[in-house]
Write a structure and sequence with these properties.
Number of helices: 10
CATH topology: Peroxisomal Thiolase, Chain A, domain 1
Radius of gyration: 18 Å
Largest sheet: 5 strands, mixed
CATH superfamily: Thiolase/Chalcone synthase
Number of domains: 1
Structural class: alpha/beta
Distance between the termini: 15 Å
Bound molecules: acetyl coenzyme *A
Strand content: 25-35%
Helix content: 25-40%
Order of helices and strands: EEHHEHEHEHEHEEEEHEHHHEE
Number of strands: 13
């Protein structure tokens, strides 16, 4: 059986760090409220940088680590809901910046915070054995935040994560993707919409998110015929510490296997999982041969999970 394996990862976080106290400049909030309700301490905002520029920087780092020629990339997918233009896609702009081959598919996926998981799933179905792909999650959410709405603007941050993946003969990779069309729980207006900001029903998203993670983990384990004990690390979309802790307790998963870095970056939507993967490798929390489950959930409403051997 062949499946995707991660060859290398990279991330790019913009320089401008925004603390919870900094958020008080925009809205009536407090460090205590944000920390206790979400776990978030800081987030980063792009300062004039475009989404594709952040994506390109993360991609370069991943490609450096992969030690392959850019011509060895057979597919480039960017997961994003905050691209710079309706067209060209962020992926096409990255292709231009990196001079990737012109005979390969290059496109964006919009599955909100599940985008990177969707991109991996699509990639696994598209690649032939031996081929490499560049998969990026990148968001500049600060441009679609309403800085007068305290219930949303404190939650999100900007950033990019990237992975070079290869379809290998003995790679262990399973993926699931699902969606329930819903505009009420989480909505961002399109380019011509007046209300082109994030709108969210926090309680509804909380319920959906916890259910989606639980479903994502249980169903992927069933598909792979494995149990929780076979998994070395669970990498959930980094939206809110309470969402992750709730699932950890409900499913009796070991706390130390639930990776969390949202305290630093806030919710970076499609970028959160590749940024988390890059930190996992950097901090040597995982090594070759380990198995991880990654789960995404977000606007759409979408969800997805994948199980892979590193
Ligand atoms: N600072 C201070 N007070 C605030 C803030 C803030 N930043 N935001 C909201 N409040 C107030 C509200 O106005 C409300 O005040 P009121 O009672 O006077 O009306 C009070 O805090 C409680 O509001 P709730 O919405 O009930 O707060 P809750 O405890 O539910 O926490 C939260 C809100 C954190 C959004 C929660 O619902 C949640 O975790 N939802 C999950 C949503 C999420 O994480 N989304 C991430 C993006 S979506 C995604 O990634 C898929």
């Amino acid at each position: 059986m062949s499946g995707l394996r991660i060859v290398s990862t990279g991330r790019y976080i913009p320089e401008k760090c925004i603390t919870n106290d900094d958020m008080k400049r925009f809205v009536d909030t407090s460090d205590e409220w944000i920390r206790s309700r979400t776990g978030i301490v800081t987030r980063y905002h792009a300062d004039g940088e475009k989404t594709y520029e952040m994506a390109t920087k993360a991609a370069k780092k991943a490609l450096e680590g992969a030690k392959i020629s850019y011509d060895d990339i057979s597919l480039c997918i960017v997961a994003t809901v905050s691209g710079d233009y309706a067209t060209p896609s962020v992926a096409c702009m990255v292709q231009r910046e990196l001079s990737l081959r012109e005979d390969i598919p290059v496109f964006d996926i919009n599955a909100a915070c599940s985008g990177f998981i969707y991109a991996l799933g699509v990639c696994d179905r598209m690649l032939d054995e031996g081929e490499n792909a560049l998969i990026i999650g990148c968001e500049r959410l600060s441009k679609i935040l309403d800085f007068t709405d305290r219930s949303t603007c404190v939650l999100f941050g900007d950033g990019a994560g990237a992975a070079v993946v290869k379809k290998e003969k003995n790679g262990i990779f399973y993926s699931l993707m699902g969606a329930t069309g819903n505009k009420e729980a989480l909505f961002v207006g399109g380019v011509n919409e007046e209300e082109s900001y994030v709108h969210m029903n926090g309680a509804e998203v909380f319920r959906f998110a916890t259910g989606a993670i639980e479903k994502g983990i249980k169903r992927i384990l069933e598909k792979a015929n494995m149990s929780e004990d076979d998994i070395d690390m669970f990498v959930c979309h980094q939206a809110n510490a309470r969402i992750i802790s709730h699932v950890q307790r409900r499913m009796h998963l070991p706390k130390e296997k639930m990776f969390m870095n949202l305290q630093k970056y806030g919710n970076t939507s499609g970028a959160s999982i590749p940024i988390a993967l890059d930190e996992l490798f950097e901090q040597k929390l995982v090594k070759e041969g380990m198995k991880i489950i990654a789960v995404g959930f977000g606007g759409g409403l979408t969800w997805g999970s994948c199980l892979m051997e590193l």
